[in-house]
Design brief:
Number of strands: 6
Structural class: alpha/beta
Number of domains: 1
Order of helices and strands: EHEHEHEHHEE
Radius of gyration: 15 Å
Helix content: 25-40%
Oligomer: single chain
Length: 164
């Protein structure tokens, strides 16, 4: 894996019709922000080869809103990414990255935010950037990291959705 893109799901509805968190769908704002973030990433040249998506409704819908921007990406829906911790997210990304250059993870907090912070620290990013990621990693946010031949991360971008 040469690049990792962490994409948090879009804004979800407060409750699902089933009452289960897993079944919460995206709010209209979440659909729009997910599509906008995908377009922003694609405009900057960030194109995943493979996308690992949690099987929760809101992450599947986030990918559905984003996938048109990444027509060559292969999506895999992974049940273990539902509320996975940062170590699990990283492990799954590294496994997928053995065969491809760029991996995108579509998942949940706190795991994605914790991994972003961890990679920023490992990559010796400025304290102000680490602090920014610690304070906020909102829905539809993305963090992008490059990896060298030894697997060391380097910050490549932190992007938040446009909100008026």
């Amino acid at each position: 894996m040469h690049r990792l893109i962490l994409l948090r799901h879009g804004k979800a509805e407060a409750e699902s019709s089933s009452g289960e968190d897993f079944d919460r769908r995206l709010a209209p704002r979440g659909v729009a922000e997910s599509a906008q973030m995908a377009a922003q990433l694609a405009d900057m040249g960030f194109f995943p080869d493979v996308v690992l998506v949690s099987t929760a409704a809101r992450t599947r819908e986030t990918w559905a809103a984003a996938e048109a921007c990444f027509p060559k990406a292969r999506a895999r829906f992974e049940p273990e990414l539902y509320h996975a911790d940062s170590h699990s997210v990283r492990r799954e990304a590294e496994r997928a990255g053995v065969e491809v250059g760029t991996v995108m993870m579509v998942g949940h907090n706190p795991g994605l935010q914790e991994l972003a912070i961890q990679l920023l620290i490992e990559g010796h990013s400025p304290a102000s950037l680490v602090s920014k990621a610690q304070r906020n990693f909102p829905t539809a946010a993305a963090a992008v990291f490059l990896f060298d031949g030894e697997g060391r991360p380097a910050f490549d971008g932190l992007f938040f959705p446009d909100r008026d």
